[in-house]
Amino acid sequence: MKKNKYKLHATSVGAGNFAVLAAFILSAESESVWANAFRLPNQDPEAIARGDAFTATADDPAAVYYNPAGITQLPGQQVSAGLYVISADTKFSAPGESAGTATTPQEVPQLYYVNTFTNVPLSVGFGVYAPYGLSLNWGANPPFSTAGENGSLLYACFNPVLAWKISKTLSVAMGPDFNYSQVTFNEGLLGTGYVFKYKGDGWDFGYNAGLLWQPDPKWSFGINYRSSTRVKYEGTASQDSPFSPISSTSSSIAIPFPEYITGGISFRPTPNWNFEFDLDWTKWNEDKQVTFDNSPFGTQTLKLNFNNSFIYEFGLTRELWDGYFASVGYMYSQNSSPSANFNPVIPDANLNLGGVGLGHHGQRWDWMAAFQFAYGGRTVSGDSANPSADGTYRTFNKAVNISGTYKF
Q1: Which of 99, 112, 231, 326 has the smallest count of CB within 10 Å of its CB?
Q2: For 105-153, how does the pLDDT look when each residue is reduced to its tens digit (9 = 90+)?
Q3: 18 SS3 class
């Protein structure tokens, strides 16, 4: 049997004027909420407070991620910086056994810039964010240590977009995304004294697109699409043992990241109220397995066999007084990992997520603060890949997100 260890070490990457934030993103361990595999859909507090139901509203700079067509609603130049901080808490129980994850807070920053031109119906935007993330630590020697003990994945997206306001009611947008990722994987072979290690990084490219249609002041419809990518990690595979010298070889792996599409409907019965419902679909079924080639131990394979899944999102916002507003929302996220290939390092489960937030829109400055919680779980049985992982998993995550926006 195998003892799997996953750990990712931070590095920094620059991209023009966003180099500092990019380095910050890559030095932070992105934390998934453990539903919908390793997607991280939470990219802005105004959206998070609304249960991420933001595709048909998309009226702050984070529209670069949620629906880039929405940036045509933003006058002049605006820049927004945010910080998402989450504490993951998953517990495992089985007859005579129990374990829990470390709850150390982890930070995921976001940065967005938007410029709407005055003489042409065009807007440009740029975002730096982490749409995927995976980091979980069960500590040393959990009951399922042969399946996994800890894991981490870092993924940073650099995303310029161009939006065109075709008419007063219709806008479209598209932009490329340049994605950098880094991974380190350690796998112990029980009883041999050997450890298989892999460390690598890679780039890939994709695109996102959006549409925003507002046929009436009370109604708005939005669509957001992100293409799939496939990051090929180039690195080194090695064997390490106290009984023999370390030997290493050049090795590569390829990990697919799925395409997904979100559709949203916003209803505003009065200027003070905004209700929205979104449906998000992720095409996970291309993530079958991860294979490490040219390993000192031969081919090493991690089976995933993910299923396609949905996220259901509902939120409302109430305008208060003097520019203040409050939001509340709910999200239900389906799990994507079948029991037959369940891995505790990705304890994917059906999750209920709630959000609440308070913000202010000013002449030059906007700010927003949101709190989010997630709870849920599942019972795994018949795990053919990792029988020791059979048991009950319960998750209760807590997160806060704050942001500030400056309008030129």
Answers
A1: 326
A2: 888 899 999 999 999 999 999 999 999 987 778 877 778 776 666 777 8
A3: helix
Residue 133, phi then psi, degrees to nearest 5: -165, 145
Residue 247 to residue 258: CA distance in whole angstroms: 34
Nearest CA to 92 among 332, 334, 386, 378?
A: 378
Per the CB < 8 A criterion, the answer to whether 210 and 70 are in contact is yes
**Which CATH number fits the domain 2-407, given the four candidates 2.60.120.200, 2.40.160.60, 3.40.718.10, 3.40.50.1100?**
2.40.160.60
The CB-side HSE value for 283 (13 A sphere, CA atoms) comes to 11
Structure tokens at 327: 């939001």
> Per-residue b/e over 345-354, b at no fewer than 16 CB within 10 Å?
bbbbbebebe
**Dihedral sign, Cα of residue 381, residue 30, residue 135, residue 9:** positive
The C-alpha atoms of residue 132 and residue 113 are separated, in whole angstroms, by: 21
Give the type of residue at 82: G
In terms of Cα–Cα distance, which of 367, 297, 302 is closest to 61? 367
Residue 184 structure tokens = 């380190």
In the 3-class helix/strand/coil scheme, how is the chain assigned residue by residue? Answer: CEEEEECCCCCCCCCHHHHHHHHHHHHCCCCCCCCCCCECCCCCHHHHCCCCCCCCCCCCCCHHHHCHHHHHHCCCEEEEEEEEEEECCEEEEECCEEEECCCCCEEEEEEEEEEECCCCCEEEEEEEECCECEEEECCCCCCCCCCCCEEEEEEEEEEEEEEEECCCCEEEEEEEEEEEEEEEEEEEECCCCCEEEEEEEEEEEEEEEEEEEEEECCEEEEEEEECCEEEEEEEEEEEEECCEEEEEEEEEEEEEECCEEEEEEEECCCCCEEEEEEEEEECCCCCCEEEECCCCCCCEEEECCCCCEEEEEEEEEEECCCCEEEEEEEEEECCCCCHHHCECCECCCEEEEEEEEEEEECCCEEEEEEEEEEEEEEEECCCCCCHHHCEEEEEEEEEEEEEEEEEC
pTM, entire model: 0.87
Domain boundaries, given as residue ranges, for the chain: 2-407
Interval 216-256: pLDDT, tens: 999 999 999 999 999 999 988 777 666 665 677 888 888 89
